[in-house]
Amino acid sequence: MLQTTPKAQKSLLKNLGMMILCLLLPTAIGFLFISFKLSDTTIILLYLFGVVLCAKFTDGFYYGINASVIAVMLFNYFFTDPLFTLRVNNSDYPITMLIMMIISLLISTLTSQEKQSATLARHSALQATTLYNFTNTLLEANEIEQAQEIIVRSFSDTFHTKAAFLPQTKKGQAAPYLLQQIQANTIKHRKYRPENLEREFSSWPIKNKEGAFGLLLLPKIKEGGFDEAQKQLIHSMCACAALGLDRIENLHQYMASQEKITQEQYRSNLLRSISHDLRTPLSGIMGTSEVLMRLEISQEERIQMAQGIYQEASWLYSLVENILNLTRMEEGHLILNKQEALAEEIIEAACSTVEKRNKDRTIQVNIPSEIITVDVDEKLIVQLLVNLLENAIRHTPQENKVEIVLEADPIKKEVRFIVQDEGEGIGKEDLPHIFEPFYTSSQNQKDRARGIGLGLAICRSIAQAHDGELTAHNRCDRSGARFICTLLMTERKDLS
């Protein structure tokens, strides 16, 4: 015995009711026309109109064809002599009813085809809109899990069900969890039993040529499952989902390859710059040491040569310190040892280091009369200020001033370390790139002669590691550059 679902039974009753209604109405109106003594042709037209309505408002060809046959029989039964019988006395009626049958079948077929074409066009437009919106939503995802959630949400909303996604590796190993939409806009990780998946879900693979990304899981619908149009839409959406996941994987691979290329370029630039910049001071140290060993010179000359060796060695120490700090920052291994420190003592330590290396230069210090403290890694902030001060000295004539200023903003809770000079300033073409690693000004011979362009890059990294910022400007009041390091203030007290 043929088993039908409640949904199919409801559709059958609806179509039968519509067919009966489309045939009863012409019959009832036909009796009215007979009372007005109208011709049989008018009644035939009524039945043809009823067949058109039946083909229009029922599903499939069969109801329209059946309505065509039944319409001829009703016309013969109720409106031809002898009445209320299927016999025909008039020899013209068989031909009339045959023509009526042919016209009814043609009208029913053409109407059904037109309706089917309109339905297909509507389904195609809906499918195209759904795929367009689904693809655009997938383009917003940059992570695999984010895309998986979009897939689950889109299938759930499109088919009005609680869809799920079971991730898989390229080797076909399933994840120990699946993502399922429990409520609207609520997706949860859910543990599962493999033996229950087939019983609970219908599965649809999402894969490319290299392997599967996972399984789309749709709860099994008891009322007939999916029709052909829905199955086609599911296949199309699965293909779009595979393309979206494949795009994200390719994006991650591209980013990883670009990062590897960047690291290789970084290492190459670093090694090339170090080999160049280490050679000059080491040659000076070796030459001066050889002179000290072989020649008989005065004590004053020995002191001057020893100072030269010390300055070259100090520069090498600073270079190595900068390289180590930058390497730790790039690799994410730099650990901040934050402690509450006096801003004044940080400035004193930086100035002492710089003046010791540059005995012919004096740094002007301008600090307020309040005690200002900052929560920082003191060693790194001293290194930051040393780099800024040495950069200022290198670009400032000996007779001009290099100054460090300390400012506090109690409203914004900020402390500003300002290093400014009276040198030639920063070129407009250099200003956007001044904090980039290995960047040296093409117009400044001092930069090209010594320095691998790490100092300012390290300064900005140190400031950012402390949730601060470092900016560079040209001075407005006179020629020179101004570097401003802004950090958070922890405390401010009056000396009184």
TrEMBL record:
Residues in Histidine kinase domain copies: 273-491
Recorded catalytic activity of this chain's protein: ATP + protein L-histidine = ADP + protein N-phospho-L-histidine
Pfam families linked to this entry: DUF4118, HATPase_c, HisKA
UniProtKB keywords: ATP-binding, Kinase, Membrane, Nucleotide-binding, Phosphoprotein, Transferase, Transmembrane, Transmembrane helix, Two-component regulatory system
Membrane topology according to the record: Multi-pass membrane protein
CDD domains with a match to the protein in the record: HATPase (cd00075), HisKA (cd00082)
Signal peptide, first to last residue: none
UniProt enzyme class: transferase
EC number: 2.7.13.3
GO CC field: plasma membrane
Transmembrane intervals: 12-32, 38-54, 61-79, 91-110
Name this protein carries in UniProt: histidine kinase
